[in-house]
Amino acid sequence: MSTNTAQTLYTQPQTSELEQFLYHEADLLDNNDLKSWMELFTEDGTYWMPVARDQDDPHGHISILFENRAVMAVRANNFGHRLSASMEYDIRTSHLIGNVRVTEFDENSGDCTVKSNFQAVLYYREQTLFAGTCTHQLKRQGEGYRILQKRVDILNCDAPHRSIMTYI
Amino acid sequence: MTTATEARNNIIARQQQTLGHSNEELTSLVEKDRVHRDVYLDPEIFDLEMERIWGQAWVFVGHDSQVKKPGDFITTTIGKEPVVMVRDKKGEVNVVYNRCGHKGAKVVGKPCGNAQMFRCPYHGWTFQLDGTLNATPHKCGYEDTAFDPADPQFSMQKVARVENYRGFVFANLSEQGDDFETFMGAALETIDNMADRSPQGEVEVVGACLPYFHDCNWKMFFENLNDAQHPMVCHGSVGVATKKTVRELPEGTPVPKEVEIISPFGSSYELFDDMGVTVMENGHSFMGGKHSIHSSYSEIPGYMEAMIESHGQEKTERVLGSNRHNTAIYPSFTIKDAVQIIRVVRPVSVDKTLIQTWHFRLKGAPEQMLHRTITYSRLINSPASMVGPDDWDCYARMQESLRSNSAEWVDMRRYIGREESADGLTRAKGTSDLSMRNQYKAWTNYMTQTSEQEA
Q1: Is 80 exceeded by the pLDDT of residue B400?
Q2: Which DSSP helix (H) or strand (E) runs through B379?
Q3: What is the spatial distance between Cα A91 and Cα A67, in angstroms, rounded to a whole number?
């Protein structure tokens, strides 16, 4: 295409490559390895679980979760802490991911947005099923990706929940 | 013909006879320094509470900014009663029972919306925005039946009393009892303080609420609001984890803004004792005053200037100099004036309680003020936060193990006898159980239907 630049353009990644990335991310969550999990995010990366359908603002409207790296680090240090009443019980999750599709791709930066559907079971004192759509904004870094934002839209975002003890 | 109020009072009177809890029995559940576990466990007592406490107290319904235009409505509950709060065509905010005057179906199903008129989806009876019956389809069937469409029993009935105070709408299901301002007492200052923190003197609800299901009796949540013995224990980990995270930051990294919100939850007994707890009539209480866990927040650029320009230096200093922690307005409502958050208690059953958290914009203030409100609530109140779930867990533990037959009483004696009273308010050190003892004084008064308050 363009003749005025020597820049190499990225080709859109195969869905299978992105699936491997999403599986790896979910696997870290399912192993309660929050420290490794947060390293998948860029320094300005965020995890967002809105409370409203089609919510477009995490700052001026309440969310169930909207956490930057600093709060992720507090959460990792708090996870399983012996001084926390709620952390005395096991927290287990199991993620199932499907319908992975690329919704945006920038051939100049290699960045892409990936949507997937998920079902995640949280076992914490009782078993709870979460289901919905994940939107990962991925930044190309070398051969791999880091997460600029993981947005998790659960079907029952505006329903009353009991405690949600970890990232879904 | 009996009025709606007489009919309701008759129902209460009937229940008093049939439920088998005499006033003497109810009084015996509350002693000066302890309460019997049945107040948390007995479904019959829960039903009585819905009639006698939630049916006689002023209960928070919603904020009028949730129903800005005529026809705007929200649905909620007052105790067990389903209600609709709606702005009518004259601009008045009404609270009506969400029950069709025909077969009793819930007329409005949605949590919020706008309607020209309410229409029952079952047989099509329609109601005006003040609940009055508008029309019934196929009228010929009511000819010669003595059907009187003007009879209130065929309307969505209005609740007995409604008060809109600076946008905060409270309702009372009973015609009798204190008027709103008497009921609120000094707790009204907290609502004033929140509204006065707006340069325009007005606040508005922003967006959807954050709902959180609690597996506990509603009173456990309420008693925790001004229980300052628990933060350093129950929330001990998050303070430690936050300090550790700050230590682990690369040198020169600025301390994240979230730290000033989370850290005070790990404060010492001494800090909470110094905050103090203040109680008043009808079970209300607050912590703090001059200082609280909110008083060391950093200044947001432009806010102070906007306040001084609108209110002047003296009033601004007075308004911002007040730093109450939770003001608990028994039985339904808790407000953080300094952070612009309310939490509303909606009891579901003896061991289930819905807590709704709502967030407010200070009109005329920089948007960062709202951002801090939102950040606070996510970090502290969200079901996915690192603070709320520790409280949640402790309530659930109480609800579970109070069933143990090894003991029957719950202790509430901390700092008893060391209160100080002045100007109708009683104060004690922050880690006192004073607010709980005061709630049970109100509980006994409501439950035994005496109108006199103890001194």
Answers
A1: yes
A2: helix B367-380
A3: 19
| Residues B410, B314 within the same domain | yes
B207: contact with A, CB 8 A cutoff: yes
Closest-CA residue of chain B to A71:
B258
The residue in chain B having the minimum alpha-carbon distance to the alpha carbon of residue A72 is: B245
Return the pLDDT at B3.
62
Does B11 reside within a domain? no
The answer to whether residue B115 neighbours chain A at the CB level (below 8 Å) is no
Interchain contact, B392 vs A158, CB within 8 Å: no
The pLDDT tens digits of the residues spanning B198-219 come to: 999 999 999 999 999 999 999 9
How far is C-alpha A47 from the geometric centre of its chain's CA atoms?
6
Q: Do B208 and B319 fall within a single domain?
A: yes
Task: Please state the domain count of chain B.
Answer: 2
Tens digit of pLDDT for each residue in B178-188?
Answer: 999 999 999 99
Tens-digit pLDDT profile for residues B222-259:
999 999 999 999 999 999 999 999 999 988 888 898 98
In this structure, the answer to whether residues B141 and B225 fall within a common structural domain is no
pLDDT band at B8 (very low <50, low <70, confident <90, very high): low
Confidence (pLDDT) at B5: 63
pLDDT value for B2: 53
Residue type, B132: T
Question: Which residues share a beta bridge with B114?
Answer: B72
> What's the complex ipTM?
0.94
pLDDT for the residue numbered A2 = 42
Q: Do A163 and B248 touch (CB under 8 A)?
A: no
Whether pLDDT at A166 is above 60:
yes
Q: B161 in helix, strand or coil? A: strand
Other beta carbons within 10 angstroms of residue B21's beta carbon come to: 18
CATH class of A15-80+88-154: alpha beta
Would you tell me which residues 365-394 of chain B have a C-beta closer than 8 angstroms to some C-beta of chain A?
A: 367, 370-371, 374, 377-379, 382-384, 386, 388-390, 392-394
User: Pick from B348, B361, B375: which is nearest to B79 by CA?
Assistant: B348
Mean pLDDT along residues B80-85 = 98
Q: By residue range, what is the domain housing residue B230?
A: 185-447
* Angle CA A60–A71–A34, to nearest 5: 130
Q: Quick one: B282 and B191 in the same domain?
A: yes
- Interface A-B, measured as beta-carbon pairs within 8 A, has a size of 125
Percentage of chain B exceeding pLDDT 90? 85
Side chain identity, residue A5: T
Report DSSP letters for B205-270, one per residue: E-S--EEEEESS-HHHHHHHTT-TTSHHHHTHHHHHHHHHHHHHSPTTPPPPTTHHHHGGGG--HH
Chain A residue at shortest CA distance from B376: A62
Residue of A83, A89, A75, A100 lying closest to A19 (CA atoms): A100
Give A109-116's long-range contacts (Cβ < 8 A, gap of 24+): A109/A10, A109/A139, A109/A140, A110/A10, A110/A140, A111/A137, A111/A138, A111/A139, A111/A140, A111/A148, A112/A12, A112/A13, A112/A18, A112/A138, A112/A140, A112/A145, A113/A137, A113/A138, A114/A18, A114/A22, A114/A138, A116/A22
Contact A81 B382 (CB under 8 A): no
Q: Which residue has the tokens 């300090």?
A: B243
Is B252 exposed, middle or buried, given 0-12, 13-18 or 19+ CB atoms closer than 10 A? exposed
Q: Does the beta carbon of A91 lie under 8 angstroms from any beta carbon of chain B?
A: no
Rounded CA-CA distance A125/B92 in Å is 46
